[in-house]
Amino acid sequence: MSASPTYSPPKAVAAEKSGAVVCAVCSSSQSAGEAAANLYVCLACGAHARISAHERIRQLADPGTFKVWDVGLEGSDRLGFFDTRAYVDRLDEARIRQHLPDAILSGAAQIGAIPVGLAAFDFGFLGGSLSTAVGERLARAIEASAEARMPFVCVTSSGGARMQEGVFSLMQMAKTVAALHGLAERHLPFISVLADPTMGGSIASFAALGDVILAEPKAMIGFTGARVITQATYEQLPAGFQTSEFHHARGLIDQVVDRRELRPVLTQLLRVLSAPAGDIEQSAA
Ligand SMILES: [Zn+2]
């Protein structure tokens, strides 16, 4: 485990805060400062725009508390994969554009002054897909949280397995689940936050295993896309299929939380889940 002594978000993240931000759902526009202050939730229609991992950390961690883990851990192209382009070129391009070694940022932080392990996926990095490096960083972050006896919080925004890494990607499902087992053995909570989208191998492994599972409004959550299911089953799917609200109504998700409420809700949950039993009884009395 290597932790950087200080974390400063890349300059490009600050640059997101210049120019207008246009909502992808209703096309209304906000000034960059307004959008950032509103956590990239549309003021007109409430749509939650996808945000980078750096922005997610900015929104959730107490200012100045985030310390990145595994700074130098990068993935590689083990299969020599080439589709219309070489996988290594796609990786290099994503690293430069998203200012990340791979599709996840993890580290130690505080939320509401409570020390936690915190990880955030970046959908802009090859669809937030679960590469070997992402799985390794996630597993190490969970293990580091367990060692430090801290709760673990992960915000997932991931299309699932990274097809360019084939079976190596699928192995990350077992690895991350095994790491979470270690956290559970120490009676430490895992809070899983599902952002748009959380699909495939990610929801089929670690993301569905939170002691508490929260989701942002109208996030797409499921294993296989609705179109593929319809084609395979010839069934008419119910309205709102694979949304946060759909899963919440059926018990998969504990609470659908507006992004602007996410930090206070996490703080409250962490306080309750981290408190000794006597304290909870007292505060409930
Ligand atoms: Zn809108």
Which features would summarize this protein structure in a list?
eight-stranded mixed β-sheet, 2 domains, 2-enoyl-CoA Hydratase, Chain A, domain 1, 38% helix, binds zinc ion, alpha/beta, 285 residues, 17% strand, single chain
List the topology elements.
Elements: H1 11-15, E1 20-22, E2 29-31, H2 32-37, H3 53-60, E3 67-68, H4 87-98, E4 104-111, E5 114-121, H5 132-147, E6 152-158, H6 166-185, E7 190-199, H7 200-203, E8 212-215, E9 221-222, H8 226-233, H9 244-249, E10 255-256, H10 259-274, H11 277-284
The site of zinc ion (ZN) has 8 residues, from loops.
Give your account of this protein's structure.
It is a single chain. The protein is an alpha/beta fold. Helices cover 38% and strands 17% of the residues. The chain has helices at 11-15, 32-37, 53-60, 87-98, 132-147, 166-185, 200-203, 226-233, 244-249, 259-274, 277-284, and strands at residues 20-22, 29-31, 67-68, 104-111, 114-121, 152-158, 190-199, 212-215, 221-222, 255-256. Strands 3, 4, 5, 6, 7, 8, 9 and 10 form an 8-stranded mixed sheet that branches. It has a two-stranded antiparallel ribbon with strand order 1-2. Helix 5 packs parallel to helix 6. It is globular and about 60 Å long. The termini are far apart. The model has no long low-confidence stretch (mean pLDDT 92).
